[in-house]
Amino acid sequence: MSVGQVHHLCRGRGGPARRAQVGTGQRVSPRRAHLQRDRSGRPTGGAPAPHLRAIGCPWSKWTCAKAAQGGHLELLQWARANGCPWDQMTCALAAEGGHMEVLQWARDNGCQWDRGTCLRAAGGGQLEVLQWARAGGCAWDEWAPALAAGGGHLEVLQWLHANGCPWDAKTCASAAEGGHLDILQWARANGCLWDEKTCASAADQGQLEVLRHLEVVKWARANGCPWRADTIRLTRRRQRVLAWAAENGLALDA
Questions:
Q1: Which of 59, 61, 141, 209 has a 20 to 30 Å separation from 192 between CA atoms?
Q2: CA 81, 83, 87 angle in degrees (round to 5)?
Q3: Region annotation Disordered: residue ranges (predicted)?
Q4: From CA 100, how far away is CA 128, in angstroms rounded?
Q5: Contact 22, 47 (CB under 8 A)
Q6: Chain-centre distance of CA 18, in angstroms?
Q7: Is the confidence at residue 213, as pLDDT, over 90?
Q8: Residue 171: pLDDT band by 50, 70, 90 thresholds?
Q9: What predicted TM-score, i.e. pTM, was given to this entire model?
């Protein structure tokens, strides 16, 4: 792990970067050290977390959370053994990254979790982690299907629905926003509600991938999804969307 990565773990989110003595004794910004990479793309240089702690680098609950997110079990274990705090984000970020071993160790050692663990697992497409968390009694809510849909994770969405996870119109809107027509079609075929945000989300995200998102809007409208004038007004620079909307009776001057 690079100096920059470990320093980021030490200080958590935000706060001024402190300078650390590394290697030759030259004072190097941890951020600069993090950005210095070899040809393989891996950071060059490095210093152990104990070194940074020894020179007064602060840490917080985000130290454990970021270690978990990166799958760094040994670092997480060291941090906890040396009194670093943690909270539910440790489990949530481990789940998002699919780091089952880290999540299991955290839970076995008393780390709390909440619905964020299931939500992050769903959004990250981590079905095995999601299944394990639910088997252990972790909470979830309607945001889990929405995040799975937005990430394009159809298998995860199908499992959520089959196992009784609630969903609402956010699922269709998220699928549309991501341009995932297959997921939108499946959700609707299985009774998921939608509203005008479905068309709005697809239209608003159409700037870079107009054709893909336009197909979502077309299908949604052909199947009765509501829309409003401001749905397409969001897309003034998306000429294909504008032209199709005008041809299909949406008044844009209102």
A1: 209
A2: 100
A3: 1-50
A4: 8
A5: yes
A6: 28
A7: no
A8: very high
A9: 0.70
110-113, long-range: CB < 8 A, 24+ apart: 111/86, 111/87, 112/87, 112/88, 113/88, 113/138
Q: What is the pLDDT of residue 27?
A: 41
Q: String of b and e for 215-243 (b: at least 16 CB within 10 Å)?
A: ebbbbbbeeebebeeebbbbbeebeebbe
CB within 8 A of 37, min separation 6: which ones?
Answer: 43, 44
Q: What is the pLDDT of residue 28?
A: 36
* Arithmetic mean of pLDDT over the chain: 77
Residue indicated by tokens 């299944």: 131
Residue 232 pLDDT more than 60? no
Identity at 89, one-letter amino acid code:
M
At 45, the amino acid letter reads G
Indicate the DSSP class of residue 22. E
Give residue 252's pLDDT band: very low, low, confident or very high (50, 70, 90): very low
- Where is 8: in which H helix or E strand? helix 3-11
Dihedral in degrees, nearest 10, Cα atoms 36, 41, 44, 50: 110
What is the rounded CA–CA span in Å between residue 170 and residue 198? 8
What whole-number distance in Å separates Cα of residue 12 and Cα of residue 95? 19
Secondary structure letter of residue 209 according to DSSP:
S
**Encoded amino acid at 44, one letter:** T
Q: What is the Cα–Cα distance from 27 to 47, expressed in whole angstroms?
A: 13
* End-to-end Cα spacing for the chain: 57
